Amino acid sequence: MNQHTYTTSKEFITKFEFDFMETYSFCRDYEPGFKPNGIEYILQADGSLHPTADHTHTFQRTDPQVAEFLQIMQTEIKEVPAWMCAPYYRDAVLFYDSKGTLITALNICLSCEYMETAPRAHINADAQTYVLLKQFFLSLGHHVEDIFSPLPAK
Question: What is the pTM of this model?
Answer without folding.
Answer: 0.88
